[in-house]
Every structure is written in structure tokens, then in C-alpha cells.
User: Fold this.
Amino acid sequence: MLHFQTFIGGIFDTNAYLVQAPGGNILFDAPTGSSDWVRDLAVRPDLLLVTHGHIDHIDDAAKIKRIFKCPVAFHREGIPLITDPNFFKELGLFLETEPVQPDFLIEETPEIDFCGIPFRVLLVPGHCPGSLCFYSADHQLLFAGDVLFAGSIGRTDLPGGDHELLIRGIHEKILTLPDKTVVLPGHGPRTTIGDERRDNPFLR
Assistant:
């Protein structure tokens, strides 16, 4: 299996994953404290992939880009959330984070190479506009962001949320993956596609 390390940071216990790929180190998401964690590991991230634009997943993104000269990438629908410092304030959410500009944008695609690993990129909105999941068929891993959790799904009551859209996306794009696929969610413990297909009460 692919070698990776997990960090849990911020007040929402948000997961970040640092993957040792053949062509460099990939960091999935950047919760509060992740920049110090990476620095303490004495590892340089070569790419930061953002699953979606909620503050708890991007709080250290600008810092990581600045310190490590690391390119940052996310979906185009995440641009307002991630690049506009007033976006959440205008929605009545008094949350602040340092904005960060993308070095490139990622679209849904059957295959794209990140640091020597081919990934299928799945666009699964409903929790947040522009929510991406990254699937490695070679390693049977899914970096799921806040789309799917162990026994749960992403909340849909925040601005831009859509419960029916999320459920449809999970059924059409996520539950079609092999049962043995390990799901690495944005919060909580890992799970598998098979376990969630059988037991997740939100997906029945």
C-alpha cells in the first residue's frame, strides 16, 4: 500500500494526509497546524491538493505555499471560497483564514498524474461546491475529503450544500468503486467502500 502519514488539526479535528509518491510528496488538505507538522517531519511537500474550500481544510494552505514554495491546486468552483478573504464573512460566518491562489485548477478526469501516481479525480458536490475526491486504483485508496465518512456523510446545511446532490454523487461515483477501497476521510477514522455500502445509514 502507498506510504502516507496522517495529521489531525484545528478545532474540527480535520485530517490531512501526506503521501510519499515516486515523484515527490503530496499533501491532501491543510488544516490548522499542518504546516508545523510537515516542518517537524523534516519533509518538503511538493504539491498541496485541496479537496474543498471549507476553512478547516485550507487554514494553513497559504502558509504551506509560502514556506515550502509548494504549488496548490483545487477545483475552479472552490476559487471564491479559497481566494476571497471576505467570502465567509459575507455569508454571516465570522471565520478568517489567509487566502491562497491556485497554481493550477483540477477538473474531474478519469486519470491525471500527481507526482508519479495516477489518480482518478471525482467531482462530488453537495457538501461544498467543487468538492473533489482523489482515487488511486493502483493502491485502492480514496482521499474523500468531506464527501464520505465512516458511518456518515458530509453535512449539507452550510452555504452551497445540497443533500440530494451529495447522495446522488456518492451513489454514482463513490459506491461504484471496489469494496476493498480504503476511504481516507476529512474527519474521523478510515473506512472502506464495502463497509459504507453495507452499513452507512445515510446511503440506504
Observations:
- The domain at 4-203 is CATH 3.60.15.10 (Metallo-beta-lactamase; Chain A).
- The CA atoms of residues 65 and 71 lie 6 Å apart.
- The longest helix spans residues 163-174.
